[in-house]
Specification:
The chain is of the alpha+beta class and 114 residues long. It is built from two helices and five strands, in the order H-E-E-E-H-E-E. It has helices at residues 3-9, 56-72, and strands at residues 16-19, 23-27, 35-41, 83-85, 101-105. The radius of gyration is 14 Å and the shape is globular.
């Protein structure tokens, strides 16, 4: 069981900013920006590269939820902006084998990313 599954079940506490039937979102405990929220599907999909066609609606829900959270946190402005990141595999920066979307904001984010 991953740490994210333990957060979903309530076994591990988290600073939750959103929860619905399909996903949960909370502040990252090791933030890489002033705002760093993780949006995680409740269905365990190891990584985006293993998502299937039947997951299409869920994947769209994660992105729309990220936009909703950005608005609720007051960072959904064109001047400020935010970044969404999905890591896939070791070289892609994946540290937990449970698909999740990083919502990052509150500072200038360089391109290309590290």
């Amino acid at each position: 069981m991953t740490i994210f599954e333990k957060i979903i079940t309530g076994e591990i506490p988290a600073d939750i900013v959103h929860q619905d039937d399909l996903c949960i979102a909370f502040h990252d405990v090791t933030p890489q920006a002033p705002t760093h929220v993780l949006i995680i599907p409740k269905k365990c999909i190891a990584r985006i590269g293993e998502a299937e066609e039947q997951d299409q609606a869920l994947l769209g829900h994660l992105l729309l939820t990220a936009g909703k959270i950005a608005s609720e946190l007051g960072i959904n402005h064109t001047d400020e902006g935010f970044r969404l990141v999905i890591n896939n595999g070791k070289n892609g920066g994946e540290s937990v084998p449970h698909l999740h979307v990083h919502l990052l904001a509150g500072r200038a984010l360089a391109w290309p990313p590290g």
